[in-house]
Amino acid sequence: MNQTILTADGTRLTYRETGQNLPDADPLIFQHGMGGELGQPQSYVGEHPARRVISMNARGHGDSDAITDPAQACFDTYADDVVALADQLGLDRFIMGGISLGAGTALNLTLRYPQRVSGLVLCRPAWIDRAQTPLNRDAYGSLARLLREFTVEEAVATFTQSALYREIFGQSRSAASSLLGQLTRVGAARNAVILECFPASSPSTNRETWRDITVPTLVIGHRDDPFHPYDIAQLHAELIPNAYLSTVPSKDADSAGFFAQIEAALDAFLADGARR
To answer: What are phi and psi of 8, to 5 degrees?
Structure first.
């Protein structure tokens, strides 16, 4: 069952905890991707994670409050919300992790609050130190426009008939399916600004600062997905000093292996690589 916190500006955010609260192991705060919700990272760690795992629905996602100001759709705000959650739970130190957008949030938080982070998990990172590629920005911008102009059903029909959708589908069926999910998720139209602001932004503005990260770091990447390029995962693993890159199959190549190998990599890291 989801629990609730209120941020300093009165935003209601929901979160959930699983796993065991071990006395000698910092918990993992593990955040979802853009358009996702807390069930995504919770499913990645499996039913019996190696330690306590906490996931929160970011602003504009799941059953948390919607984005009310475009200025809230930024990595600084999302990272600050995680810190607010940690403060409410009495966590001085924690492992910070995330998937895609959540990985960007994790990187931002680690750079800005290094004293709070004892380990870092970057699963399928999709941002570096500048805006995303024109393909990404065009795709997400198109989805935002459709959400503002049409009903969900009309938006889906229009998008699936577009040349852009056919191009993405030709590269990765799972990526195309994920984009459709951005249209059909609960609250998509109210939070269309997320699709415009985040792809045009970045978690950090200078990749050289990644070299200052000293905590154990797990980077999980895969090929065959234009929205989560493998070279982005490689770059994080190269620049962060104590980083290990785990390469998993893409969803298109091996869906079962994708989830199984991510869970195995997380289990190994939580059990051995990020112990206090």
So the answer is: -60, -30
Sheet holding 28-31, edge to edge: 3-6, 12-18, 53-56, 28-31, 94-99, 117-123, 217-221, 243-247
Cβ neighbours of residue 167 under 8 Å, at least 6 residues apart? none
- Is pLDDT above 60 for 48? yes
Encoded amino acid at 225, one letter = D
Q: Which two tokens stand for residue 217?
A: 């770091």
Unique residue bearing structure tokens 């800005």? 112
Q: Are 226 and 168 in contact, with CB atoms under 8 Å apart?
A: yes
Q: Above 70 in pLDDT, residue 35?
A: yes
If we measure between CA atoms, which residue out of 98, 121, 108 comes closest to residue 207? Answer: 108
- Residue 106's alpha-carbon distances to 25, 80, 144, 193, in angstroms, are 19, 11, 25, 21
Q: What number of residues does the chain have?
A: 276
* Category of 32 on φ-ψ map: left (φ > 0), alpha (ψ -120 to 50) or beta: beta
Q: What angle do CA 262, 202, 230 make, to 5 degrees?
A: 35
Give the whole-angstrom CA distance, residue 179 versus residue 199.
13
Q: Which amino acid is at 253?
A: A
Strands 28-31 vs 3-6: parallel, antiparallel or unpaired: unpaired
Question: What does the pLDDT look like over 185-204, one tens digit per residue?
Answer: 999 999 999 999 999 999 99
